[in-house]
Specification:
It is built from 16 helices and no strands. With 366 residues, it is mainly α. The longest helix is centred in the first third of the chain and has 27 residues.
Length: 366
């Protein structure tokens, strides 16, 4: 039976880490790379102590863990439902307890980066006698693993039965325009990925929003907004795949490239409307009207910079995460330098040039 578990790790866990390597590396960089080496231990001790002593901080950490686990669950369900992974259906022939145990181990391994950091939380918590909080952390994490294992096991065993719980299609009216077609695809076919992205970004922005006061530095909002945009990069890839499979013929239509480029800019601005609405109450309280208007422009510029990279002829798909990491890091440093306007304009100009250059040279990568 070890062969079955080895096979499941190879086809489920390894693709998960490969697809999320950039994000995990970036989180590792934020946790350990931006702090001076002499201050790392003190920094993480303070961070963990704050989590153990503050209920609000602890809830925030729980929400982040939950979103991470839901993200991994969404990925594992997607990949196991693909036609090329239909051999996983044979797992349903195993006893229920055995297949559940296998999926429990899979869930634990995908959660391993978080669990390794949790060991430090346990060490400091025991030292400071936060036994009740540690018990809550343990129960919560085990509940996350059990949740993923049950959903995956149930999905494999009940795949031949139509689900009685489905998400609404969220179909949009008036999808005749290019922007409407792509927005309709997101709301109808990628609603689960869109929902996860929105939950993460809205929770993140809400937490920061509640701490803003008049006179606060706009860089706080700018960096938070950048993290929110990072959670939507997966949608850009899905849109490009949708275009490659069903809409590649539209390049033969007499549509100016400027109009197509503008349609994408409008789409990427509209995607961030919920986050903008959440921040409307902070106009005049840590956020000026001009800065508020800048946010959707920056959204379009950042996401469009990712889109034009996907149009790169003969690109190496494995280099996408490297590009995304350096793009994010560059924007992060520029926002810290109070150059968010310059960043948005520069990304728009560069993206426009590359879009006009690459649109008709692009060929789908199989």
């Amino acid at each position: 039976m070890k062969g079955i578990l080895h096979m499941m790790i190879k086809v489920l866990v390894m693709p998960f880490y490969k697809n999320h390597a950039g994000l995990l590396f970036f989180v590792f960089f934020l946790m350990f790379g931006i702090v001076e080496s002499t201050q790392i231990v003190f920094y993480h001790q303070s961070l963990i102590y704050g989590m153990l002593s503050s209920g609000i901080f602890l809830v925030g950490v729980f929400v982040i863990w939950l979103l991470y686990q839901l993200k991994s669950l969404h990925f594992l369900l997607k990949i196991s439902d693909a036609d090329s992974y239909s051999f996983l259906n044979h797992v349903a022939l195993l006893p229920v307890a055995q297949s559940f145990l296998y999926f429990l181990l899979i869930s634990f391994i995908t959660f391993l980066p978080v669990f390794l950091y949790t060991l430090a939380i346990y060490a400091i918590g025991i030292q400071q006698a936060f036994y009740e909080v540690l018990a809550l952390v343990f129960v919560f994490q085990v509940a996350l693993w059990l949740m993923n294992a049950w959903v995956l096991n149930h999905s494999i065993r009940q795949r031949h039965i139509a689900s009685w719980v489905t998400m609404p299609s969220l179909a949009l009216p008036h999808q005749q325009t290019q922007t409407g077609i792509y927005a309709g695809y997101l709301f109808k076919e990628e609603k689960s990925a869109l929902l996860l992205s929105k939950v993460f970004s809205l929770v993140l922005i809400y937490i920061v929003k509640e701490t803003l006061e008049p006179g606060d530095d706009f860089r706080i909002v700018g960096i938070t907004w950048l993290f929110a945009l990072l959670s939507h990069t997966y949608l850009v890839q899905k849109l490009k795949t949708f275009e490659d499979h069903l809409l590649s013929w539209t390049r033969n239509l007499p549509i100016p490239t400027t109009k197509t480029f503008s349609s994408y800019l409008l789409l990427y601005s509209l995607v961030m409307i919920p986050e903008l609405l959440l921040l409307t109450g902070n106009i005049g309280h840590g956020l000026s009207l001009l800065q508020f208007i800048l946010l959707p422009i920056f959204s379009s510029a950042f996401l469009m910079a990712i889109h034009v990279y996907l149009l790169k002829p003969n690109r190496d798909p494995d280099q996408f995460l490297t590009y995304l990491f350096w793009l994010f890091l560059g924007c992060f440093m520029l926002v810290l330098s109070k150059l968010i306007w310059v960043t948005a304009v520069a990304l728009l100009v560069i993206s426009s040039h590359l879009f006009n250059k690459r649109l008709f040279q692009y060929e789908r990568i199989e």
